[in-house]
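Task card 7
Instruction: Convert sequence to structure tokens.
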Amino acid sequence: MTRPLALTLGEPAGIGPDITLGAWQNRRALSLPSFYVLGDPDFLQARARLLGLDVPIAVVEPHTATAAFAGALPVVALTERVTAEPAHPDASSGPAAISSIRRAVDDVMSGRAHAVVTNPIAKAVLYRTGFAEPGHTEFLARLAEERTGRAARAVMMLWSEELAVVPVTIHLPVRDVPQALTTELIVETGRIVARDLRERFGIAHPRLVLAGLNPHAGEEGALGAEDQSVVAPAVAQLRRERINARGPLPADTMFHAAARRGYDAALAMYHDQALIPIKTLAFDHAVNVTLGLPFVRTSPDHGTAFDIAGTGRASTASLVAALKLAARLANVDAMASAK
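Output:
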């Protein structure tokens, strides 16, 4: 029987439970792969009643989730009880979210699940529980390292059919980006992206483009030296390693339709340089994919949206895209491993 996807609960007071219930309710029309949720079944049943959704809950173990999926939302019950109300995280929120992530990683690395799909978390809520990582991605990398004994360098990709982008530096103030950006960091990121495009996405010869840090890619040093001293050497090194890479290119001309046809992924030097174009092109259906891990992980490309939690107004589109992409990537990975 096909292994299901492990879907985390996310922040209980956010829209993660809402979109999970809504996605399952429309599973046939959307042709969704089977998945199970890791969390409190009573909490999910209560949220379904609040939303007016007819979603039966089946308490399962991962190996019975696929069989149950057609008739009920499969839930692997964890010990943490959830008492948070929509838009109001409480003391149960952090422990429930963290436990769900831990169990999902354990399930996929133990072969009980095909891939991990994570609902949005509220980092500020987790920090109040003593959560030590900057965010989801870093926590997943640490869990992978704990299981394998090998350091995992996780890379965030935002993917859609229209565009795939990778920010080389992520959650940094803009003033700190030039100091954080190094040739070595760019090269290591490019290697991981190229490898996972081959092994996970099935692209035999990935094409990468790298944006310049400065306007006009530095205008030959007139608008900043970093593109010549940091980015260009990284491109040269990637090319020496037989990775098809071009750049640094002016970021303002990289993302129109004709330009996008020339590459498979764009590496941007900082957060907004990557996220503005993809959220403009694919706001409702982009997917966050973590590269560099020993398992497939995807996530909706949006946050907890406390302002609409429990109202029934949250769109399921990004979660649906994340579930479908996780199933696709896990299947490609399994086929590659079997060769």
